[in-house]
Amino acid sequence: MRSEAKTVIIGGGIIGLSIAYNLAKLGESDVVVLEKGYLGNGSTFRCGTGIRQQFNDEANIRMMKRSVELWKGLSEELGMDVEFTQSGYLFLIYEKDELEAFKNNVRLQNRFGVPSRIITPEEAKEIVPPLNTNGVIAAAWNHTDGKANPFKAVFAYAEAAKRLGVEIYEYTEAKDIRVEEGKIKTVVTNRGEIKTGRVINAANAWAPLINKMAGVPIKIPIEPYKHQGVKTEPIKPGQIEPMVISFKHGGVYLTQEAYQGGVIGGYGLKYGPTYDITPTYEFLRGVSYRFSQIIPALKYVNVIRIWGGFYAETPDHNAAIGRINEIDEFYIAAGFSGHGFMLAPAVAEALAEFIVDGKTDKPLDFYDPYRFERGELRGQALQMG
Ligand code: FAD
């Protein structure tokens, strides 16, 4: 293992790896990524694969618009197919007040160039033929949203970063961060020490532990909540192409994988704060029931896998991204709740620009880690599941 590096990134999920890649792309390749398990084992490999621009605030819409632009070219850029497909997101609407809220969101999304629109239940059924439209009065639809394969995206970023000179150490846990007079000196790991002047905390659900190691003096409330996912056996291709969501049915979301053909999804049941991710029978029963309310034919399809993972939640469900002023060259990008996979390309690009150039044209300020300390929470980010 290297004994010295300009930058140490703690966390080998999609966020840490995409930041490593973007730093190296900007010429800062003296980067080491530390991952305490295997790459992606945190939240990233446990995610629901969804990528959407249908948010309810300007910053997340703009970030996600940029992210989708990047997702579109990512397979080519990284030299590995990440299976990104623009199969759309379909929010089912059952109540009049829900419809008003979605109309407002659509207006905002359209202002920033996202082509979402409100459609009829009949149009929704054309998009997803086996959909149960009983009680549905409308749907919010955006055909440029989509999904990608988290396993492939992680390896694609990791391999591309390595080609640019980044070194990645799996099974290497950051145990301590030595800081003297506001300057980072060393990251202590289970495999030795690395001298460094810059640390990026990309540990998501574990980010508060990393902040504590460095003595970050401000309050950044990130808490780990257990959410679960499910996957069924493959069904005939092209049945449920978009991500379909119903808040009325407990925040259920589901989509058919573009390549493997199984139906993947979950719903809003959460436990915590906890670091336990054992799957529960309560979830299996709840998700099966909700899937079959949305797509009745799924009653006859077998579940082949369920799993638990973390939503690393802040009080406004937006991540904390930026520099910690009291510790020279300490940065955080963590607390991504249910939308860190989709945001990674744009967040990593923005943070790398900010670190290397001192500025970015993306709305990074929105995720200011000091907002909690100041009591200036953002509006709750639209969160599914
Ligand atoms: P992680 O992938 O958790 O990576 C952090 C890494 O840090 C971990 O691998 C961990 O092992 C490592 N680490 C921690 N402490 C240390 C240490 N001391 N030393 C070294 N390494 C350390 N997002 C979407 O965008 N779309 C979705 O559809 C979606 N669905 C989801 C469904 C479920 C059921 C869950 C659980 C999450 C979902 N998410 C979704 C959220 C998404 O998975 C996360 O926001 C995203 O993966 C966060 O990436 P990350 O790299 O920040 O975190």
Automatic annotation (TrEMBL):
<dbReference type="InterPro" id="IPR036188">
    <property type="entry name" value="FAD/NAD-bd_sf"/>
</dbReference>
<dbReference type="GO" id="GO:0005737">
    <property type="term" value="C:cytoplasm"/>
</dbReference>
<keyword id="KW-0560">Oxidoreductase</keyword>
<dbReference type="GO" id="GO:0016491">
    <property type="term" value="F:oxidoreductase activity"/>
</dbReference>
<protein>
    <submittedName>
        <fullName>Dye-L-proDH beta</fullName>
    </submittedName>
</protein>
<dbReference type="InterPro" id="IPR006076">
    <property type="entry name" value="FAD-dep_OxRdtase"/>
</dbReference>
<dbReference type="Pfam" id="PF01266">
    <property type="entry name" value="DAO"/>
</dbReference>
<feature type="domain" description="FAD dependent oxidoreductase">
    <location>
        <begin position="7"/>
        <end position="353"/>
    </location>
</feature>
